[in-house]
Amino acid sequence: MDLRDYEKWPSISKSVYESIEARTPVKPSSILITGMGGSGIVGDTIKDYLGNRLPIHVIKDTMIPDWVNGKTLTIAISYSGNTAETLCSALLAHGKGSHVIGITTGGRMLKEFNERGISVITVPSATAPRFGFPQLLYAALAIINKAIGIEKNDIEESIVAQENALHDKSIAADIGKQLIGYVPYIFVDSKVQGVAVRFKNDLNENAKTPAIVATIPEADHNDIVTLMMKHPVKHILVRAGPNPIIDAVEIVFNDFSSQLIKIDLRGNGILAKELYGISLLGVTTLYMADALGVDPVRTDPIDTLKKRMGRLC
Ligand code: F6R
């Protein structure tokens, strides 16, 4: 099976992280990360990893909050450089005095940011935006490292985690097999919710399959009630290490005799767990695309929609 760019992910992660030179304001009071879809998921991942250290706000829209100011570091990510929502929100942040740095492969972002004197970093291209996740993520992490400093060990461990996921290909294939014909209902520990959001997006885009994300503990107060009926869903539980709340959820699933596909994210730190889960479950969706006979790369409705929407700003 063609694993697309996944086999190159570990080496791209390392080379991009080591090559980025970025000037950032010393100690921003908050970080805004704006981007959509395969670019926007970088924000979710970084928020899971560093959101306890300082406020990190993920924007997937044209708008930004009123409080953004000169102490906010904005990282605007658009693989193509042409995504209207990302460009509009980034330019709004720039207008409010925020230090904006773009990450892209080219397009409007490269041209227009250069024209306005906004910093922009170019990264290597991939088969599609979502397959370029490591270059987008590790460029953003390199910027943040310059601004607030991050542990070298976390980066190294996250790259090993990607290799571990590739070794676990047979687990990925087995999960994929169980999901065919169902709507995956992904219950996830809130500490690693980025993994579930990315999995949903990959199910949508690679396997053309709808999916639902339910974040624990909030899902314990609503989604869990759906166990009272049999729906054409397959439940998945993404665990990020010991958590008594998640143990209780498992017991409830058992009580309602609902089958659960359990995924224990390998790795010590949150970043490693994220990269393990995102890589493993991304590969899962490639196996599903193969079994369903669909082209994992094509995303025709997104392309049509972008053409219809135009520039916006
Ligand atoms: C993922 C994908 C989309 C794009 C999204 C934003 O492969 O194709 O989710 O990532 O439409 O586009 P970019 O990333 O170019 O800003």
Question: What secondary-structure arrangement, pairings included, does this model have?
Answer:
Layout: H1 9-19, E1 30-34, H2 37-50, E2 56-59, E3 72-78, H3 84-95, E4 99-104, H4 107-116, E5 119-122, H5 133-148, H6 152-167, H7 169-179, E6 183-189, H8 193-205, E7 212-216, E8 233-239, H9 244-255, E9 260-264, H10 270-292, H11 300-309
Parallel strand pairs: 1-2, 1-3, 3-4, 4-5, 6-7, 6-8, 8-9
Helix pairs in contact: 1-5, 1-6, 2-5, 2-8, 6-10, 7-10, 8-10
This protein binds fructose -6-phosphate.
The site of fructose -6-phosphate (F6R) has 15 residues, from helix 2.
Specify the biggest β-sheet.
5 strands, parallel
Strand content: 15-25%
| CATH homology superfamily name of the largest domain | Glucose-6-phosphate isomerase like protein, domain 1
Q: What is the name of the CATH architecture of the largest domain?
A: 3-Layer(aba) Sandwich
